[in-house]
Specification:
Oligomer: single chain
Helix content: 10-25%
Distance between the termini: 170 Å
Number of helices: 4
Structural class: alpha+beta
Amino acid sequence: MPPALPEQLLLSDLLRRRVRCDQGLDHGAGVLAWMHPPVHRLLGWASRPSAFGPRRDVWRLNQLRGLAESELFVRGEPSPTDAETLRRLPTLIDAELLGVGGAPLGTIADAAVELRTGAIRHYLVSRSDPRLPGSSRWRLSPDRIVDQQPGRVFTGLRDLDDLPLARASVRQEFLRRSRRWRDQVGEETARLRDQVQQAGGRLEERLEGWLEEPPWEEGGDRVTPPPWEDAPSPQRQPPPPDAWIDAEEREPGDDDREDDLPPRDRQPPPEPRRGPDRYRGRHDDDPWV
Protein backbone atom coordinates (compact mmCIF):
# COMPACT_ATOMS: atom_id res chain seq x y z
CA MET A 1 0.00 0.00 0.00
CA PRO A 2 1.54 3.37 -0.97
CA PRO A 3 2.10 5.99 1.72
CA ALA A 4 -0.74 8.45 2.39
CA LEU A 5 -0.76 11.82 0.68
CA PRO A 6 0.15 14.94 2.68
CA GLU A 7 -2.22 17.86 2.79
CA GLN A 8 0.19 20.19 1.01
CA LEU A 9 3.17 19.66 -1.26
CA LEU A 10 5.60 21.86 -3.15
CA LEU A 11 5.44 21.64 -6.90
CA SER A 12 9.21 21.11 -7.05
CA ASP A 13 8.88 18.04 -4.80
CA LEU A 14 6.14 16.72 -7.09
CA LEU A 15 8.23 17.11 -10.24
CA ARG A 16 11.49 15.68 -8.93
CA ARG A 17 9.97 12.27 -8.13
CA ARG A 18 9.65 9.49 -10.69
CA VAL A 19 6.17 8.34 -11.65
CA ARG A 20 5.21 4.66 -11.16
CA CYS A 21 1.81 3.40 -12.26
CA ASP A 22 -0.31 0.64 -10.71
CA GLN A 23 1.13 -1.83 -13.20
CA GLY A 24 4.63 -1.16 -11.87
CA LEU A 25 5.90 0.68 -14.93
CA ASP A 26 8.29 3.59 -14.56
CA HIS A 27 7.15 6.64 -16.53
CA GLY A 28 10.11 8.85 -15.70
CA ALA A 29 10.46 12.00 -13.62
CA GLY A 30 8.20 15.03 -13.85
CA VAL A 31 9.22 17.84 -16.19
CA LEU A 32 6.39 20.38 -16.28
CA ALA A 33 3.33 21.53 -14.33
CA TRP A 34 -0.08 21.63 -15.96
CA MET A 35 -1.97 24.51 -14.37
CA HIS A 36 -4.75 27.03 -14.93
CA PRO A 37 -3.20 30.45 -14.03
CA PRO A 38 -6.40 32.60 -14.00
CA VAL A 39 -7.72 30.71 -10.96
CA HIS A 40 -4.29 29.67 -9.58
CA ARG A 41 -4.94 25.99 -9.66
CA LEU A 42 -2.76 22.99 -10.53
CA LEU A 43 -4.48 20.50 -12.86
CA GLY A 44 -1.70 17.96 -13.20
CA TRP A 45 1.87 17.45 -14.41
CA ALA A 46 3.80 15.83 -17.23
CA SER A 47 6.58 13.24 -17.06
CA ARG A 48 9.23 12.12 -19.53
CA PRO A 49 9.21 8.31 -19.88
CA SER A 50 12.40 8.16 -21.93
CA ALA A 51 15.52 10.25 -22.16
CA PHE A 52 15.30 9.93 -25.97
CA GLY A 53 12.31 10.91 -28.02
CA PRO A 54 9.74 13.73 -27.79
CA ARG A 55 7.02 11.72 -26.01
CA ARG A 56 5.56 13.12 -22.76
CA ASP A 57 2.97 11.61 -20.42
CA VAL A 58 0.43 13.96 -18.85
CA TRP A 59 -1.17 12.99 -15.51
CA ARG A 60 -4.16 14.52 -13.78
CA LEU A 61 -3.74 15.51 -10.16
CA ASN A 62 -6.59 13.23 -9.05
CA GLN A 63 -4.64 10.22 -10.39
CA LEU A 64 -2.09 10.63 -7.63
CA ARG A 65 -2.43 7.90 -4.99
CA GLY A 66 0.69 8.00 -2.89
CA LEU A 67 4.13 9.44 -2.28
CA ALA A 68 7.44 7.82 -1.46
CA GLU A 69 10.85 9.34 -0.90
CA SER A 70 11.72 9.33 -4.61
CA GLU A 71 8.56 8.01 -6.34
CA LEU A 72 4.94 8.94 -7.09
CA PHE A 73 2.28 6.26 -7.30
CA VAL A 74 -0.52 6.89 -9.77
CA ARG A 75 -3.54 4.98 -11.01
CA GLY A 76 -4.80 4.87 -14.56
CA GLU A 77 -3.35 5.62 -17.94
CA PRO A 78 -1.61 8.90 -18.89
CA SER A 79 -2.48 11.15 -21.82
CA PRO A 80 0.40 10.99 -24.33
CA THR A 81 1.64 14.22 -25.93
CA ASP A 82 4.87 15.79 -27.17
CA ALA A 83 7.25 18.49 -25.91
CA GLU A 84 6.06 21.08 -28.45
CA THR A 85 2.46 20.83 -27.22
CA LEU A 86 3.57 21.16 -23.61
CA ARG A 87 5.38 24.43 -24.36
CA ARG A 88 2.02 26.00 -25.26
CA LEU A 89 0.44 25.19 -21.90
CA PRO A 90 0.01 28.33 -19.74
CA THR A 91 2.01 28.42 -16.51
CA LEU A 92 3.36 30.95 -14.04
CA ILE A 93 6.40 28.91 -13.10
CA ASP A 94 9.64 30.62 -14.24
CA ALA A 95 7.66 33.81 -15.00
CA GLU A 96 9.29 37.17 -14.26
CA LEU A 97 7.87 39.02 -11.29
CA LEU A 98 7.48 42.78 -11.81
CA GLY A 99 6.82 45.46 -9.19
CA VAL A 100 5.68 49.07 -9.24
CA GLY A 101 6.53 50.74 -12.53
CA GLY A 102 7.47 47.41 -14.12
CA ALA A 103 10.67 47.05 -12.06
CA PRO A 104 11.89 43.43 -12.08
CA LEU A 105 11.92 41.88 -8.62
CA GLY A 106 12.63 38.21 -9.21
CA THR A 107 11.34 34.95 -10.68
CA ILE A 108 8.48 32.69 -9.62
CA ALA A 109 10.32 29.49 -8.81
CA ASP A 110 7.85 27.26 -7.00
CA ALA A 111 4.32 26.90 -5.65
CA ALA A 112 2.68 25.35 -2.59
CA VAL A 113 -0.22 23.14 -3.75
CA GLU A 114 -3.12 21.69 -1.81
CA LEU A 115 -3.23 18.14 -3.15
CA ARG A 116 -6.90 17.50 -2.43
CA THR A 117 -8.20 20.40 -4.54
CA GLY A 118 -5.15 21.53 -6.52
CA ALA A 119 -5.45 25.12 -5.21
CA ILE A 120 -2.20 27.05 -5.11
CA ARG A 121 -1.91 28.58 -1.66
CA HIS A 122 1.12 30.73 -2.46
CA TYR A 123 3.99 31.06 -4.90
CA LEU A 124 7.67 31.11 -3.98
CA VAL A 125 9.74 33.88 -5.52
CA SER A 126 13.50 33.82 -6.02
CA ARG A 127 15.59 36.95 -6.40
CA SER A 128 18.37 35.25 -8.36
CA ASP A 129 18.47 32.16 -10.54
CA PRO A 130 16.07 29.63 -8.92
CA ARG A 131 18.28 26.76 -10.03
CA LEU A 132 21.01 27.87 -7.61
CA PRO A 133 20.94 25.68 -4.48
CA GLY A 134 20.28 27.39 -1.17
CA SER A 135 18.84 30.58 -2.65
CA SER A 136 16.22 32.55 -0.73
CA ARG A 137 12.47 32.23 -1.28
CA TRP A 138 9.75 34.82 -0.60
CA ARG A 139 6.10 33.88 -0.23
CA LEU A 140 3.72 35.53 -2.75
CA SER A 141 0.02 35.00 -2.18
CA PRO A 142 -2.25 34.98 -5.29
CA ASP A 143 -4.26 37.98 -4.06
CA ARG A 144 -1.19 40.22 -4.45
CA ILE A 145 -0.98 39.56 -8.18
CA VAL A 146 -2.42 42.48 -10.14
CA ASP A 147 -2.12 41.12 -13.68
CA GLN A 148 -0.43 38.29 -15.54
CA GLN A 149 0.75 37.64 -19.04
CA PRO A 150 2.68 34.75 -20.60
CA GLY A 151 6.02 34.82 -18.79
CA ARG A 152 5.22 37.98 -16.78
CA VAL A 153 3.45 38.59 -13.46
CA PHE A 154 2.61 42.13 -12.27
CA THR A 155 2.30 43.17 -8.62
CA GLY A 156 2.15 46.38 -6.59
CA LEU A 157 5.33 45.56 -4.68
CA ARG A 158 8.30 47.87 -4.35
CA ASP A 159 10.75 45.27 -3.11
CA LEU A 160 10.83 41.60 -2.24
CA ASP A 161 11.35 42.51 1.40
CA ASP A 162 7.67 43.53 1.42
CA LEU A 163 6.87 39.80 1.23
CA PRO A 164 7.31 37.29 4.06
CA LEU A 165 10.49 35.27 3.83
CA ALA A 166 9.83 31.54 3.43
CA ARG A 167 13.42 30.32 3.23
CA ALA A 168 16.57 32.35 3.79
CA SER A 169 19.94 31.72 2.25
CA VAL A 170 23.13 32.16 4.26
CA ARG A 171 23.64 35.63 2.84
CA GLN A 172 20.02 36.66 3.35
CA GLU A 173 20.02 35.32 6.90
CA PHE A 174 23.17 37.29 7.66
CA LEU A 175 21.65 40.46 6.22
CA ARG A 176 18.44 39.96 8.15
CA ARG A 177 20.26 39.42 11.45
CA SER A 178 22.53 42.39 10.76
CA ARG A 179 19.47 44.55 10.12
CA ARG A 180 17.82 43.30 13.30
CA TRP A 181 20.98 43.96 15.36
CA ARG A 182 21.28 47.42 13.85
CA ASP A 183 17.67 48.19 14.77
CA GLN A 184 18.21 46.94 18.31
CA VAL A 185 21.37 49.02 18.71
CA GLY A 186 19.53 52.06 17.32
CA GLU A 187 16.65 51.59 19.78
CA GLU A 188 19.03 51.16 22.72
CA THR A 189 21.01 54.25 21.70
CA ALA A 190 17.81 56.29 21.39
CA ARG A 191 16.67 55.10 24.83
CA LEU A 192 19.99 56.05 26.45
CA ARG A 193 19.94 59.43 24.69
CA ASP A 194 16.45 60.13 26.04
CA GLN A 195 17.55 59.22 29.56
CA VAL A 196 20.57 61.53 29.33
CA GLN A 197 18.40 64.38 28.02
CA GLN A 198 15.87 63.89 30.83
CA ALA A 199 18.62 63.85 33.45
CA GLY A 200 20.17 66.99 31.92
CA GLY A 201 16.79 68.75 31.96
CA ARG A 202 16.22 67.94 35.63
CA LEU A 203 19.73 69.12 36.52
CA GLU A 204 19.22 72.38 34.62
CA GLU A 205 15.92 73.04 36.41
CA ARG A 206 17.51 72.47 39.80
CA LEU A 207 20.47 74.72 38.93
CA GLU A 208 18.17 77.54 37.76
CA GLY A 209 16.12 77.28 40.95
CA TRP A 210 19.25 77.35 43.09
CA LEU A 211 20.56 80.46 41.31
CA GLU A 212 17.24 82.29 41.72
CA GLU A 213 17.00 81.64 45.50
CA PRO A 214 18.50 84.45 47.82
CA PRO A 215 21.22 83.32 50.21
CA TRP A 216 18.89 84.07 53.19
CA GLU A 217 15.44 85.46 53.85
CA GLU A 218 15.08 89.22 54.52
CA GLY A 219 14.78 89.94 58.23
CA GLY A 220 16.04 86.54 59.08
CA ASP A 221 18.53 85.70 61.79
CA ARG A 222 22.14 86.26 61.11
CA VAL A 223 24.47 83.43 61.13
CA THR A 224 25.94 82.98 64.60
CA PRO A 225 29.70 83.22 64.44
CA PRO A 226 31.76 80.45 65.95
CA PRO A 227 32.42 80.72 69.68
CA TRP A 228 36.10 81.25 69.17
CA GLU A 229 35.57 84.42 67.15
CA ASP A 230 33.79 86.30 70.02
CA ALA A 231 36.06 85.13 72.85
CA PRO A 232 38.52 87.92 73.95
CA SER A 233 42.17 87.18 73.57
CA PRO A 234 43.85 86.57 76.92
CA GLN A 235 46.04 89.44 78.19
CA ARG A 236 48.78 89.25 80.71
CA GLN A 237 47.74 90.91 84.01
CA PRO A 238 50.35 92.97 85.98
CA PRO A 239 51.41 91.56 89.34
CA PRO A 240 50.06 93.18 92.54
CA PRO A 241 52.04 96.14 93.97
CA ASP A 242 53.14 94.34 97.09
CA ALA A 243 54.75 91.64 95.06
CA TRP A 244 57.74 93.91 94.39
CA ILE A 245 58.42 94.56 98.04
CA ASP A 246 61.83 93.26 98.98
CA ALA A 247 61.88 90.50 101.43
CA GLU A 248 64.41 92.38 103.62
CA GLU A 249 62.07 95.40 104.00
CA ARG A 250 59.14 93.39 105.25
CA GLU A 251 58.14 93.82 108.88
CA PRO A 252 59.13 91.00 111.18
CA GLY A 253 55.58 90.52 112.16
CA ASP A 254 54.37 89.84 108.71
CA ASP A 255 53.62 86.20 108.49
CA ASP A 256 54.08 85.80 104.82
CA ARG A 257 54.25 82.49 103.39
CA GLU A 258 56.86 81.58 100.91
CA ASP A 259 54.29 80.95 98.24
CA ASP A 260 53.07 84.59 98.55
CA LEU A 261 56.39 85.94 97.35
CA PRO A 262 56.69 86.80 93.68
CA PRO A 263 58.77 84.56 91.53
CA ARG A 264 62.47 85.17 91.46
CA ASP A 265 62.46 86.12 87.81
CA ARG A 266 59.91 88.86 88.56
CA GLN A 267 61.74 90.40 91.62
CA PRO A 268 63.52 93.71 91.01
CA PRO A 269 67.31 93.58 91.03
CA PRO A 270 68.90 94.18 94.49
CA GLU A 271 70.48 97.53 95.30
CA PRO A 272 74.29 97.68 95.27
CA ARG A 273 76.02 97.16 98.56
CA ARG A 274 77.02 100.26 100.44
CA GLY A 275 80.77 100.74 100.24
CA PRO A 276 82.98 102.89 102.53
CA ASP A 277 83.55 105.55 99.93
CA ARG A 278 79.93 106.22 99.38
CA TYR A 279 79.01 106.93 102.98
CA ARG A 280 82.28 108.39 104.13
CA GLY A 281 81.73 111.37 106.44
CA ARG A 282 78.18 110.49 107.40
CA HIS A 283 78.87 107.87 110.05
CA ASP A 284 82.31 108.57 111.31
CA ASP A 285 81.48 107.11 114.67
CA ASP A 286 80.70 103.75 113.11
CA PRO A 287 83.65 101.52 113.75
CA TRP A 288 82.75 99.28 110.82
CA VAL A 289 83.08 101.95 108.27
